[in-house]
């Protein structure tokens, strides 16, 4: 029979790996709550225009990477490639404008038809925060500080550096774009095919090109900072001074434009060298124009998202024991005694599983693969003496415990 393979770029995640995912999501939920964020959940598919309008029809994400299809009712649907546009759609369509400001945390799968490689999947998990309706540079710094706190809590702060940039307001960007297009047009023949094709649709993205051929032209390109108007300079300076005051280290990277079209003012990325070419673990910025792109009023907003798959890869020694106790009856006749134990455990919120039948040493091997901490073994002798054998897999030690002392002993050992 032909086995059906999983789709390229997707991943099946089992128990201990899933614990790592949940650990990171829970830490992110906790840190975001420390910053005043509340959890929300949004659909994983939306009408296609939710993404095509604000992310830019010319952006890579929309032009090449979305999973877009017509559903059975003829509606044009896109699986969400990111969370931000859907959150803003919800604010506008669900009448949440009167409730602003809102600080929202979310997590879940995103979908991009990218070329799969280490750290790059077609279905991947993100956690994200969006601060909507909060104006001003302090909010940008707070969002960055929230990202920094999460990485610190995960023990990854030393593996990641923070790059920040300002794309300025609309006026500054229009001026800069014009000067950049002039410069790039003069150097067109030196650019790669891909960058040449981007010039008329999305010139800023050329600054982000990884093509070797483009690097010299990019290096000598006009700098964004020379085109920022006073308002944009003031905003960026304040963000930097808040970061300085919080002791958050950063580099100003003038070429940081990010792949989505909705950004203005502050953009930022936490990057690691430990994941090869897919080194961005957490990225975001201010997106004051997004609401208008979706047909809403002007709403200031800022946020970030982090790739959970990448955070899991970076956090190499997460794999904690599950907290589930495995109970092993030596013979079939010992089952009833074990079931009674199980009922007591569950009534006391102790997680457990029972191994029914099979060879004892084979079962022990299977259990050790499951990364359990405690095993309880029950044979005739134990039942007769109202005892169990408690084995601690983390130390290898095993001892006989009276049934009456078992609950206390387990609570200490887990
Ligand atoms: P993004 O930079 O496109 O931003 O994605 C955020 C993070 O998601 C990346 O830094 C990376 O860790 C992870 N990621 C992206 N694509 C993949 C992939 N194919 N495989 C694995 N991980 C991936 C956004 O999505 C914006 N919505 C962030 C934001 C929120 N800006 C403002 N608010």
What would the keywords be for this entry?
414 residues, alpha+beta, BirA Bifunctional Protein, domain 2, Rossmann fold, 2 domains, eight-stranded mixed beta sheet, five-stranded mixed beta sheet, 15 helices, elongated, binds histidyl-adenosine monophosphate
Question: What would you say about this model in short?
Answer:
Helices cover 36% and strands 21% of the residues. The chain has 414 residues and is α+β, with helices and mostly antiparallel strands. The protein folds into two domains: 241 residues, BirA Bifunctional Protein, domain 2, CATH 3.30.930.10; 89 residues, Rossmann fold, CATH 3.40.50.800.
Could you characterize what this model shows?
The protein is an alpha+beta fold and 414 residues long. The chain has 2 domains: 241 residues, Bira Bifunctional Protein, Domain 2 (BirA Bifunctional Protein, domain 2, 2-Layer Sandwich), CATH 3.30.930; 89 residues, 3-Layer(aba) Sandwich (Rossmann fold). It contains 15 helices and 16 strands. It is elongated. It starts with 14 loop residues before the first helix and ends with a helix. It binds histidyl-adenosine monophosphate. Histidyl-adenosine monophosphate binds next to strand 6, strand 10, strand 11 and helix 11.
Set out the fold topology:
Blueprint: H1 15-34, E1 38-39, E2 45-47, H2 49-55, H3 60-64, E3 68-70, E4 76-79, H4 84-93, E5 102-111, E6 123-132, H5 137-153, E7 160-166, H6 170-186, H7 193-198, H8 215-219, H9 230-245, E8 251-252, E9 264-272, E10 280-286, H10 290-293, E11 301-307, H11 308-314, E12 325-329, H12 335-347, E13 352-354, H13 360-369, E14 374-378, H14 380-384, E15 387-392, E16 398-402, H15 406-413
Parallel strand pairs: 1-5, 7-8, 12-13, 12-14
Antiparallel strand pairs: 2-4, 3-4, 5-6, 6-11, 7-9, 9-10, 10-11, 14-15, 15-16
Helix pairs in contact: 1-5, 1-11, 5-9
Bound molecules: histidyl-adenosine monophosphate.
